[in-house]
UniProtKB/TrEMBL annotation, chains A, B:
Entry cofactors: Mn(2+); Mg(2+)
Record GO cellular component, one term: cytosol
Class in the EC hierarchy, top level: oxidoreductase
Protein name according to UniProt: 3-isopropylmalate dehydrogenase
Entry annotated with the keyword Metal-binding: yes
Compartments (UniProt record): Cytoplasm
Organism: Methanorbis furvi
Residue stretches making up the Isopropylmalate dehydrogenase-like domain: 5-355
Gene name as annotated: leuB
UniProt-listed SUPFAM superfamilies: Isocitrate/Isopropylmalate dehydrogenase-like
GO molecular function: 3-isopropylmalate dehydrogenase activity; magnesium ion binding; NAD binding
The protein's annotated pathway: Amino-acid biosynthesis
Length: 359, 359
């Protein structure tokens, strides 16, 4: 019976289509559970560049910061690829994450049993399923490290970006990872490159210190190159992975790819004390299929479930959305990206409606 | 009918066993093709730490630098894991690469048709095989970038490592990659994170400039997170990949893992003008199976083939070694790591002998 403000940023490409389906589901949740959701749409990414010249305009920032959570679609597309990097859609995303203080990006890579045959790995490797949660630090590391730039030194250009972490940045994301591991399989693998990088040696030290507060969690450390291997060789060995922004970018995408159904994977970016959590599908803006009712809205709908669970503390509602997705899959409905012979092929809007009907 | 000096660094764990088999093959090559190989053994890695306190002693450096090429096994193991990072076995490897000026690391990830069922990917994904060559920059990037360290700032520890590339470092490795692509499928994919990192923007600029000299090569650019995905989704789409030291570390290991037979994969590190090329298997020192005649010597023997080809310009000899490996596989011989029902299981020394016999 609550009343909540949700900033809705459809963004570019298939963003608006998939967000529309999540909104359909949200309004059913509102009716069924007697909540009122105040949906506050705002321009973001390429759409915002077109309307106001920048990817994350102040008006959008105001809407986001005064909301309980932010739901967004995807940003970017060929139209904006040739712009100056400083005002490209991606910069808007980085600025939004930073403004929201969203230091912990939760990226589940789960193999839905109904979609096991979509998995890119050999069936015997994934007989035990895949259920990994990557906790990626999101507002530090070489993404934001200074100094950074391109300069002429000794007569030639030199490009540099500083991979840097302060103790408190590592500690807070490690705490989120340990807390999350406590609610799951109690195994946490911290990924770094401590055999080479000073920044990784501090990462490992601080994670090891935080571990003292979580004696029940089994902590291991793995080098990033080995982690990239083990995700392929034995993904079932992982429960929760915690790592920095750059390694997390790479490994969470690798883990997602392995499941073979990236159109199904949600994400949450949380952490700020009085700032909203951000919820978005893992897939991109897919300009090639935009506007054709071909996109899979499930990743966005599951992102909405994470929003209900983490930012609004509505776990029964989140469970209902997740159960509805599972029921629709079990009933054999598939968008094109996950279609197999013998299944029922549906478009983006039909998929959204089917899920909404089952909430 | 040449005479060559080869520095041999067996190293740690299974290093000595697999190197011994490569040496067996080399001596047959010497006899058959009437070359004399002066093998100059030296301590390296943990073995060198034990004998002289440092992983890459000056005596070893002298041996390497006065040789035509360096063949080595693997370094590291639990015995040295607790040492100060400054004198750990890995530091020796980095120092050797740097001393040799070996800026281009060539890492083939190939699926041997006889071992197709070892591949970790779904059979339909790899129906067209996998034959990728990763050209990894090896002596720059955040591996060696300064400033780097851990310091107290504003009352807390801060760790930092500088991801930095100068124009000439990018240019020379890009040239190697384009040259290599010309001899293969003429497709080159440059991997960076130019949507976020300044250092990657320079990388992309310089690679694009170098491309002008190779109009026959089809150049594409890919972000590292997407590359980590595409290696899983469609590895057959790649021919040559060129990337920086850190991204190359991760992606070359991911590509190797996908083939499922990391015990088969060689590598070459080349580039210095008057310095030796370095040749080593991709796998590590595997302390758990060391000394039990269980290791697969093929990766080291194929590294030897690369040594003959690239450093000594002996391509008939290199072909003979590669053909011998293929013949032994075709005859059904397998070490434990690649064993399948119905094949003939052999140990490390038998495998080496079988290959030597067929040269
Ligand atoms: C678009 C890009 C800046 C972004 C990132 O690297 O963080 C994306 O890859 C992601 O993972 O959300
Ligand atoms: C041992 C380590 C320093 C090394 C590296 O990261 O370069 C290894 O992973 C490799 O790829 O050869």
């Amino acid at each position: 019976m609550g009343s909540y403000k949700i900033a809705v940023l459809p963004g570019d490409g298939i963003g608006p289509e998939v967000v529309a389906e999540a909104v359909k589901v949200l309004s059913i949740v509102g009716k069924k559970f007697h909540h009122s959701f105040d949906l506050r749409y705002a321009d973001f990414g390429g759409a915002a560049i077109d309307s106001s010249g920048v990817p994350f305009p102040p008006a959008t920032q105001d809407v986001c910061m005064s909301s309980d959570a932010v739901l967004f679609g995807a940003v970017g597309g060929p139209k904006w690829d040739t712009l100056d990097p400083a005002i490209r859609p991606e910069k808007g995303l980085l600025a939004l994450r930073k403004a929201a203080g969203a230091f912990a990006n939760l990226r589940p890579a789960k193999l839905f049993s109904e979609l096991a045959d979509a998995c890119y790995l050999r069936p015997d490797i994934v007989a035990n399923g895949i259920d990994i949660l990557v906790v990626r630090e999101l507002i530090g590391d070489v993404y934001f490290g200074e100094p950074s730039g391109i300069e002429v030194r000794d007569g030639e250009r030199v490009g540099f970006s500083n991979m840097i972490y302060a103790e408190h940045e590592i500690r807070r994301v490690a705490e989120v990872a340990f807390e999350t591991a406590m609610k799951r399989g109690k195994r946490l693998c911290s990924v770094d490159k401590a055999n080479v990088l000073a920044v990784s040696r501090l990462w490992r030290e601080v994670v090891t210190e935080v571990a003292k507060g979580y004696p029940e969690v089994e902590l291991s450390h793995m080098y990033v190159d080995n982690a990239a291997m083990q995700l392929v060789r034995n993904p079932a060995a992982f429960d929760v992975i915690v790592t920095g922004n750059l390694f997390g970018d790479i490994l969470s995408d690798e883990a997602a790819a392995i499941t073979g159904s990236i159109g199904m994977l949600p994400s949450a970016s949380v952490g700020g004390a009085n700032t909203p959590g951000l919820y978005e599908p893992v897939h991109g803006s897919a300009p090639d299929i935009a506007g054709q009712n071909l996109a899979n809205p499930v990743a966005t709908i599951l992102s909405l479930a994470m929003l209900l669970r983490y930012s609004l503390n509505l776990s029964a509602e989140a469970d209902a959305v997740e159960a509805a997705v599972a029921a629709v899959l079990a009933a054999g409905y598939r968008t094109g990206d996950i279609y197999r012979d013998g299944m029922k092929r549906v478009g983006c809007t039909e998929m959204g409606q089917l899920i909404a009907d089952r909430v």
